[in-house]
Known about the structure:
Blueprint: E1 3-7, H1 9-13, H2 15-25, E2 28-33, E3 36-41, H3 44-68, H4 75-92
Amino acid sequence: MGEDIRPSADLRNHYNKISNYCKNSRNAVIMIVKGRGDTAVLGLQDYYQMKAELELLRTLADAEEDVKNERVAPMQHSFDDLRTSLLERKTNGV
């Protein structure tokens, strides 16, 4: 993913152009205030994708930490626990 750098006034003066650029190029625009990076603008689709990827990376990091610290159980135990939970929900009408 690339990025474009623009002064913050462009966001107000050229919003549609910046919005279209972000959506069509799938690149971010970095807004500059007083010569320093201030805000990143990106298309909503790219935002949601980035958010989902970060959540997946966090989940994988947590899982890796669990394995390192031997906080794991055999797969069959997990399936048994899930099956029991689903049966309890069905029995309780949830």
